[in-house]
Amino acid sequence: MKLQGKAYKFILLLLVAAFLLGTRYSQRIMNDFRKDNNLTHTEPVENLPPTLALTTVVLGGFRGLIANVLWVRAMEMQDDGKFFEMAQLGDWITKLQPHADHVWRVTAWNMSYNISVKFDGIKTPQVRWHWVRRGIELIRDQGLDYNPHSAHLYHELAWHFQHKVGHNLDDAHRFYKLAWCTEMMNDPGPDGRSGTEDDIFEGGVIGGRRDGYLDLLDPQTDADRHRLKRLTEVFNMTPEKMKAVDDLWGPLEWRLPDAHAIYWAQQGIDDVTTRFDEDGDGVLNTEEEAAAGGDFLKLRRVIYQALQQACMQGRLIAKPPTFQYGWNVDLVPRANESYEKQMEVKRQEDAASNTDTGLAEHMSTGHKNFLRSAVYFLYVYNRKAEAAKWYEYMLDLYPTSIPVPGLSLDEYCVSRVQEDAGETDHNQTKAVIGGLLLEAFQYAAVGEDDQFVGYKSLAIQLRNRFQKEIGISTNRVGLPPFEEMERLVLEDLFRPNSPLMHPVLLEQLRLVLKLSEEYGKDLEPFPDPQQPVQGPEPESVSAPDEN
Questions:
Q1: Cα Rg of the chain (Å, integer)
Q2: Structure pTM?
Q3: Confidence (pLDDT) at 545
Q4: Least confident interval from 131-145, 251-265, 513-527
Q5: Which residues of 450-480 are buried (b: 16+ CB within 10 A; e: fewer)?
Q6: Is 187 helix (H, G, I), strand (E, B) or coil?
Q7: Which residues contact 367 (CB under 8 A, 6 or more apart)?
């Protein structure tokens, strides 16, 4: 007897429903198995428009074809200046082809460099920071998760910290540094949002010390365990790797962006060296560099460029919300070491490959310019013994580094002051003014009033000339009021344990300036650059194997 009618159709519907449920159940088990055994390279793509979602399901294995079509469209949008639309397409492409590292790089760059500048850097810097931060997080939290061995992505992430956040070419660069410092120092509290009433000040992953990560090497309290969890899960960093980088290139100020540029560049260098140094000599020849996929030389360049930048702005002077940062000439030996090491490595690589790329000599030009500035800034900050040592080293290595042969240290540095009077570099000019004020206070302490007035007058003139030269760019790279700059230098002198002036001279300066006995005692102690980094031996800083 044949089944027909409504009963027949009802049974068919029940069978279809049962098969669909069974398929869904078996597919879920299969997806979990593939995920657990690393048998899948792509994740289900969510939030696609209906037409694209349907096309993706129908074509299945042709996801790469869809991604290529979207990529062509994204490049057309870039040419047309449609950066917001391009960001959405980039999001879809990264989900369709997550192992194409160039898509992550372009999408992050678009957010940080194209979309962010659509907003006013003076009136709404927080909106710019939102997009810059998204670019950083896209590479750090997703791109490197799918591509843990991409030298390109390590370099792009390090470049974001060195250039976009660390440099002063963006109208909102100071806000970026302030926002990053705040994230490092403060915990957003239970609500997960910074700037609200439940924020835990100086309870962030770094806290109130430049080396606050040391507390996380062996956390003893619930608060420290929470900080460690946030460091590893939110920022994808570990205290062991931070210590390894600090031992190699520090002491770094981890509340400022240059330290993070160095951190991510070093992770890329370690990963590439671990995987492609076949003979284990720590040097990559030309063929090994090519096999690594590129950007290895750029990673090394980030190290010495970020260290040089940190010499100019790598010390946190005042914490948020006042937030002041400035020179850190204590990093001069480390920056010099980074140049020497990278040049020597490149020479060894050329020798191993029996080639002469000339890159080591190209680096030496940057090294020479760095030494010229280092000697000058050590001199103007009254560290003349160190300046003399580096001046002799510079002349031995680069005899043509001074404009006229036979110049004494004093003559060379006076010529640099005159040269810098016409410079418009924000960090360099601020450092020169700070050094001139330090010299002025030194003369005031010993009763040399004429020299005190002269150095202070020169500092005022230098600031006024700088403000005039930059013109309409005052909001972006303008200097603080002179009175504020003078106050910050004076506070540095009177910080507890400050090495900038002998205690006897400091007491004489207090009397000359008619300061109270309590002045400076409530300021944060001056950091000791010679204090060794303590803690257990770091774990290996190389990235884990793909397996």
A1: 28
A2: 0.74
A3: 41
A4: 513-527
A5: eebeebbebbbebbebbbeebeeeeebbebe
A6: strand
A7: 304, 336, 339, 340, 343
